[in-house]
Amino acid sequence: MEATREQAGAESVATRLAKSARRAVFETASRTTLLDEESVVRLRRIQMVGALGVIGHPLYFVIWSYVFPQAYENLWLRLICTALFVPLLFASALSHKRWLPTYALFAITVGMPFAFIFLYLENHGSLVWAESVIIAVVVLYHFSSAFATVALLSGAVGAFVMFVLAGHSLSGIPWQPLLLQLPIIAFVIAVLIVIKLDRQLLLEEKRRGMAVALATVAHELRTPLASLTMTAAGLKNRLPTVLDAQSEQCEALLQAVARLQTDVAYVSNSIELLVANSKDPKSARQEAFDLNGSIRDSIARFPFEPAYRDVVTIEECGHALVMGNAQLFELVITNLTKNALEAIKRAGKGQIRIRCETREDGVFILFRDTATGVSPLVLAKMFQPFFSYPADRGTGIGLAFCRDVLRSWGASIACRSVEFEFTEFELQFPRLSS
User: Fold this and answer.
1) Between the chain's N and C termini, which has fewer beta carbons within 10 Å?
2) Minimal CA–CA distance to 113: which of 142, 90, 87, 134?
3) ∠17-20-25 over CA atoms, to 5°?
């Protein structure tokens, strides 16, 4: 008996250790820095500019020194700029470093507006360097307007100071070509800003169109949903009179009717919430709700095919109260589940694991599937409205909807993925103040 108890105790300890090990692996992977859509796009731009600098500065030193010699070139300036751009190639790997944004601003400022304007001044405002300065401006304004303006102005001031310190007088500045260049640069900046605004307006127009379409669909669905509600109520009333009220068959049918009534009511409420959210996410009623309960309700309602009923594992973390709308949050989980199941079907493998955990900086939901994963290019566009992957899969509004809903509560959603391995979403909620 004692040997049996010891063996059972040992097995129990081993089981607990195995579970702890699995949880530790999951937590370690989950706590890796996750990036939102804007951060991913910004890092990609920094990397591309880094590549341009590392290749361009040495290449154009050779071109302007030996192929098409210019009046002035500076090897040391080119080497310094190239060295400054090298770390930008590894922006994704350095994304967790707090100094990266400041360093990127400094490196791009020195390597582009400062270097280009200084060489423009040294070459007496030649056409080659006038065009080069314009190209630098175009590249800069692919970043945010604030970033580009700060870099351009500080780079220009630095270039003029360096030009004077290099032994030139103010009269040595090529004033006439410089003054001719300024309106052109201002026009280029204005055009780039207008293009950005135009893209935003087009996006807003598409969103408004989707809102109108959603409202129209909702209006058309209300009548058949009301009819289903009345039909379910009629079945519930008449079944006991048609069948033996105490029979198992009648009880099963009444349970099915009750489920139908619940589902119809849920769909009706979801439609109303979606219409309200398409107009203004903050218009949906907000209150404290339990994340664990909402996750379980969403998974319980999901229409799984029989072969995929057991792919979801939910790890408990006790009550986790946050502020928001429980039903909208359930739609968020439903959307993530639907996307993960589609990936699992494409891959022919995979599991879904959902974990909730409370940390010092908030309450987190970790939603991971081990199906196909996505490439960095897809990851960078994942939350963009109307982007879908694969391209023919849907409307591309699901993840954008999830992001907008969560943002309206002060929460956030981010994603990381390794192609062919996994995709993990991290939802972060502010902790409720005591």
Assistant:
1) C
2) 134
3) 125
Q: How many CA atoms lie within 13 A of 79 on its CB side?
A: 3
Task: List, for residues 243-292, the tens digit of each pLDDT value.
Answer: 766 677 777 777 777 777 777 766 665 665 566 555 555 666 788 898 88
Among 255, 281, 307, the domain boundary falls at 281
Calculate mean pLDDT across residues 222-236.
74
CATH number of the domain bearing residue 351: 3.30.565.10
Token look-up 């979403």 returns 425
User: What is the model's pLDDT at position 23?
Assistant: 42
Per the structure, the count of domains in the chain is 3
pLDDT value, residue 85:
96
| Distance, CA of 360 to chain centre | 23
pLDDT tens per residue, range 23-67: 433 333 333 345 555 666 778 889 999 999 999 999 999 999 999
Buried b / exposed e along 97-125 (16+ C-beta atoms within 10 A): eeebeebbbebbbbbbbbbbbbbbbbbeb
Q: What is the pLDDT of residue 218?
A: 65
| Distance (Å, whole) CA 72 – CA 89 | 29
**In this structure, is residue 24 part of a structural domain?**
no
* Listed residues 281, 312, 329: the one ending a domain: 281
Rounded distance between C-alpha atoms, residue 52 and residue 74, angstroms: 18
In the block, residue with structure tokens 């057991």: 310
- Are 417 and 299 members of one domain? yes
Same domain, residue pair 70 and 138: yes
In a shared domain, residues 330 and 267: no
CA distance 434 to 346: 45
Residue range 94-152, pLDDT digits in tens = 877 889 889 999 999 999 999 999 999 999 999 999 999 999 999 998 888 889 999 99
Residues in the chain: 434
Please answer whether residues 178 and 123 qualify as being in contact, where contact means their C-beta atoms are separated by less than 8 angstroms: no
Task: Domain of residue 400: give its range.
Answer: 287-429
For residue 191, being part of any structural domain is answered with no
DSSP 141-158: TTS-HHHHHHHHHHHHHH
**Within this chain, do residues 352 and 234 fall inside the same structural domain, yes or no?**
no
